[in-house]
Amino acid sequence: MISLQNVSKTFEVGKKKVEALKDVSVEINKGEIFGVIGFSGAGKSTLIRCVNLLERPTSGKVIIDGTDILTLNKKDLQKVRQKIGMIFQGYNLLKTATVYQNIAIPLRLEGVPAAEIRERVKKYLEIVGLADKAKSYPGELSGGQRQRVAIARALAHEPEVLLSDEATSALDPTTTEQILELLLTINKELGITIFLITHELDVIQRICDRVAVMEQGRIVEQGKVVDVFTKPEHPRTKSFVRNKDVFHVPEAIKQQLEKSGKLVALTFLGESSKDPFLATIAKKFDILPSIIAGGIDQLKDQSVGNLLVHLKGTEPEIQKAISYLQAEEVLVEEVSNQ
Amino acid sequence: MSTFLNEWGDTIWQGFIDTLKMTSISLIISVIIGLPLALLLVLTRKGGEAENRIVNAILNTVINIIRSIPFIILLFFILPFTKLVAQTTIGVQGVIVPLVVFTAPYIARLIESALLEVDRGVVEAYQSMGISTSKIIWYVIVREARASIVLGLTIATIGLIGATAMAGLVGAGGLGDIAYQYGHLRFQPDVMYTTIIILIIMVQAIQSIGNLLARKLRKN
């Protein structure tokens, strides 16, 4: 439903030209949650702002429901924007208005009838769980509550798409979790497509269906979250995915272990995590597996198990064990190569 | 006390009314001129919603020039202009024009700084909702800046009261004029102190009302 085609954006900072986006193409399907991850300065913020033309691309097309919105006049663009909700890291609420007014004022400015405004504010405040805060001012609310108000404000326009510009980046882990839960609910129950950008892998992992990894204005890798997560190809993606404690083995221990065998990282997906693979390979082959570290990551609709295992034995036996595991759809990666 | 009131009561009352008149009329006209100027300054500045370097530069220069001229000089300097606009150069009517010329650019600056305090993120949020720039100006920028604008106008009002004291030079009267004419030149300290005390009370009252109103509008 949203298609960015060969989008480039060049900023002129003084006399210098900064290319924030270089020939970026992304396709966001109806009903999915699509995430873009990257470090700050990667261009993801510029990218999301190109979707509703808060930033106009220097070249390329921004197609929404079949229309290239770059060709629209002001009035028509405003109409399109009303169907695209957006939430921000800084919430961006009116400080001098109550929660109720914060949701009602934009609706009033769009000419929604008063009775309907009352209904919608009530409905969406309930959805975000702030029905009792209608008369509060943003200054009296916590960060998470303010973001809920911002979400309610966006939803009250009954949009088809919600853009999230680092919406959880200023929140603590527990609150982040709650906001992500809310975004999932919105996506599932109201059928709203969500396009989000973040620098937090957790956000992608928890709620996204597909992900694109950005670096220096380019998308370097994209695909289903499970695939990108378990089989990262680009070094940048690896640095995101592998930036986990489970893979950080002190060098001294690593060298010690490698003398008597091999260190391997095993990744189990969904169903395969239930089988006792380590016991099986210990019986089948002449090796002694021992677990160094491990953990389970919960993706949107499946879990991914990570194990760092030391396989003690001769090289041929280890290779046989690895082949066996691979045949059982366990991802095996030799840690010593990294 | 009663003899003092009998002798000076009417004069001082008249002065009070004149000061009030000059201040309030000039203030209202200055806001009517100053607010659009402030909006224009904010909108045409670099990165503004209607960026225009030429308009912005001209506006800035004119405002700075007028603000550089002391009121007493301005008062005489623009006499022909005053005559043209107000049909007269004396009395309360004649002093409104210079007071406005003096105050409007000042108010424009004060409101400009209040408007610039408004979080650009909120403006962006409203743009993302497809709301037109004109509505954003009024319902977001001006609305969010109200408290700071009120405080700015309080400062401007007090400045205006000060300027009206010089209006006596063109026969407009007012408390400042009474303090100068009777109190200072004819050396009648009781008249001077009375008018000064009234001026102090006026300034205090205006500042208090301004603070109160700003606090009510700020809400956080």
From TrEMBL, chain A:
Task: Identify a single GO molecular function assigned to this protein.
Answer: ATP hydrolysis activity
| Example GO biological process | amino acid transport
What family does the database annotate?
A: Belongs to the ABC transporter superfamily.
* Name used for this protein in its record: ATP-binding cassette domain-containing protein
Q: Which GO terms describe its cellular component?
A: plasma membrane
Q: Which Pfam families match?
A: ABC_tran, NIL
Q: Does the keyword DNA damage apply?
A: no
Traced from the root, the source organism's taxonomic lineage reads: Bacteria, Bacillati, Bacillota, Bacilli, Bacillales
ABC transporter domain location is 2-241
Checking InterPro entries in the record gives:
AAA+_ATPase, ABC_transporter-like_ATP-bd, ABC_transporter-like_CS, ACT-like_dom_sf, MetN_ABC, MetN_ABC_transporter-like, NIL_domain, P-loop_NTPase
| PANTHER family, alphabetized | AMINO ACID IMPORT ATP-BINDING PROTEIN, METHIONINE IMPORT ATP-BINDING PROTEIN METN
Q: Which PROSITE patterns match?
A: ABC_TRANSPORTER_1 (PS00211), ABC_TRANSPORTER_2 (PS50893)
Q: Which CDD domains match?
A: ABC_MetN_methionine_transporter
Keywords assigned: Amino-acid transport, ATP-binding, Cell membrane, Membrane, Nucleotide-binding, Translocase, Transport
From TrEMBL, chain B:
What Gene3D superfamilies does the entry give?
A: MetI-like
| Segments forming domain ABC transmembrane type-1 | 16-210
- This chain belongs to which protein, by name? ABC transporter permease subunit
Organism superkingdom: Bacteria
Keywords of the record, alphabetical order, are: Cell membrane, Membrane, Transmembrane, Transmembrane helix, Transport
The signal sequence is none
From the UniProt record, give one GO term of the biological process aspect: D-methionine transmembrane transport
The topology of this chain with respect to the membrane is: Multi-pass membrane protein
Its family? Belongs to the binding-protein-dependent transport system permease family. CysTW subfamily.
Its subcellular locations are: Cell membrane
UniProt GO cellular component terms:
plasma membrane
Q: Where are the transmembrane segments?
A: 20-42, 54-78, 90-108, 149-171, 191-214
Q: Its principal location?
A: membrane
